[in-house]
Amino acid sequence: MKALIDNLAVARKKSKNLLGQMLPSEVADRIMAGEITKPVSFECATVFFSNIVGFSDIAAEANSIDIVNLLNDLYKYFDTIIDNHDVYKVETVGSQYMVVSGIPKRNGENHVSEIADMALTLMSGIYSTFKVRNLDIKVELRIGIHSGPTVAGVVGTKAPRYCLFGDTVNTAARMESSGSAMRIQVSEPTYELLRKTGQYNFEIRGKIPVKGKGHMTTYWLTGKTGFISPLPKLEDFPLAN
């Protein structure tokens, strides 16, 4: 009987660890306890999207193993950086990487600074440190950030996922897709929140057409007071046509 109990305990611990890798720990704990998880609304959070510029062309010219190695190396590198910030990695889809702050743990207005600091660190690392194995290429990122209300909840049972829903997510994705290589594009709500801190540097991009949103005023996040790691200069990376 003791052996059976021990085996059950081990199996339960493995299940909890696996679930904890797929979901936020507090959400995983509630599921393991048999509680029903309901969608939760968050008044304001900051959502980050990044993508590899020209990834389709890179994938077409390289072999599949090198592409898998590229993404694995890149995401492992990203993961080591986000561990130093109060953020949650929502998912990776192909070359796209999605992170949020302020969800599932509320952190006041710190969410916008956590994402901005993370974005600057990631951009600096890609610009000055990250190397690609076996491929004679230099990875360039396109980053987009937006802040606003969001709903989060668990979707699915066999392979549950913690997903974000709402216009904030869509707009953050548009900030990425309408951006440009080695630039961090932020929406006006994100800009206003960061501007209040008095710590960040920007260049205004102006009004641009954003799919599904009409025209929006956006900004390039270019640095932060006291941030000494090297960052790409905008003039070295002209806007995409």
UniProtKB/TrEMBL annotation:
Domain Guanylate cyclase: 46-176
GO cellular component, one term: plasma membrane
Coiled coil start-end: none
Record SUPFAM superfamilies: Nucleotide cyclase
Keywords associated with the record: Cell membrane, Glycoprotein, Lyase, Membrane, Nucleotide-binding, Signal, Transmembrane, Transmembrane helix
UniProt KW Lyase keyword: yes
BP term (GO), one: intracellular signal transduction
Matching InterPro entries: A/G_cyclase, A/G_cyclase_CS, Cyclic_nucleotide_synthase, Nucleotide_cyclase
Cellular localization per UniProt: Cell membrane; Membrane
Mode of membrane association: Single-pass membrane protein
Molecular function terms from GO: adenylate cyclase activity; guanylate cyclase activity; nucleotide binding; peptide receptor activity
Keyword Lyase carried by entry: yes
Top-rank taxon: Eukaryota
Family statement: Belongs to the adenylyl cyclase class-4/guanylyl cyclase family.
Name this protein carries in UniProt: Retinal guanylyl cyclase 2
Organism of this sequence: Clydaea vesicula
Gene name as annotated: GUCY2F
